[in-house]
Amino acid sequence: MNLERSLSTDGWMEECELIYLASAAKRSLVIAELGSWKGRSTLALAENTDGVVFCVDVWEDNPLRPMYTGVRGSIFWEFQENTHEITNVIPLVTTTDLAAAAMKEIGAKFDLVFIDACHDFDSVERDILSWRPLLRDEGILCGHDFIGDYPGVAQAVKLHVPRYRLINSIWTTEPIN
Fold it and tell me: pLDDT, tens digit, for every residue of 96-151?
């Protein structure tokens, strides 16, 4: 399991959560990450899969995640700096809604969808409902921040994901093996 770069990248993901993402990525070839910020979780996914990671983010300021001004003045620049050596990362600078519609249009299917974009109920609900149909059979739907400052995450998951389990603050549909 390769987590060295991930652990040295700024972000809120705990080591045990990164370990879970890396282990899920090992069994996944087509991954969608909704919300990538500076790439901490992206690196855990990308460096532990033989497949590809589509990173969907607007990389803009929002009230839940204040803009951090880097040397070049943007979060996207920092994301690119952190992931530029990783060849299986495909950033999609767009909303999760538009990305889901585009993926549906081309018939894309995912082994793993990781939801960590906006953290309000409506956004998480939309992401679950629009990305779950894009999962392959036995695909993993999971997300971050179930526990903590974002009650809308837990509310949406409890309403739309009847069987989930927790790994720290990550919720997942993957059963315990």
Answer: 999 999 999 999 999 999 999 999 999 999 999 999 999 999 999 999 999 989 99
Here the CATH number for the domain that contains residue 161 is 3.40.50.150
Name the region of 157 (left: φ>0; alpha: ψ -120 to 50; beta: rest).
Answer: alpha
Q: How many domains does the chain have?
A: 1
The answer to whether position 177 is within a domain reads: no
Please tell me whether the overall predicted TM-score, pTM, comes out greater than 0.85 for this model.
Answer: yes
Burial 114-148 (b: 16+ CB within 10 A, else e): bbbbbbbbebbbbbbebbbebbeeebbbbbbbbee
Distance between CA atoms of residues 23 and 133, nearest Å = 23
Task: Provide CB contacts within 8 A for 31, sequence distance 6+.
Answer: 25, 45, 49, 51, 52, 53, 54, 110, 111, 112, 113, 114
